[in-house]
Amino acid sequence: MMERPRLTVSGTNIGAPDAPELAEFYRRLLGWEVAESEPDWVLLKPPGGGAGLAFQTEKGYARPAWPAGPGDQQMMMHLEIRVDDLDAALAYATSVGAVLADYQPQDDVRVCLDPAGHPFCLWL
């Protein structure tokens, strides 16, 4: 077997119907900074360093369904966001544009939807 070279995940790229709009939502939600910005691509970085989140406009974007049923667009990934106060985090997330999902599978997690329909989890 070959020796594994150094591989470092530097970020995650999230598809959206409007990259700048979705990036602005996550900038407000997380308090991260815009590190790079182009008309169809925006990179956010956490203030303390680390992997960032990038947002890319996709012309054929299909909003995922949560929970997905047969024939629905499946979510491809979701963010897990740890919080110290679930109620306060949920109130803040909805104040900046998130929507609480109708289906909530766990008591200590709140599944929210971002403006593009991507589910993300707030958890204790």
From TrEMBL:
PROSITE patterns: VOC. Residues 8-124 form the VOC domain. It holds the Pfam family Glyoxalase_6. It comes from the Bacteria. CDD domains: VOC. PANTHER family: CONSERVED PROTEIN (PTHR35908:SF1), HYPOTHETICAL FUSION PROTEIN (PTHR35908). This is VOC family protein.
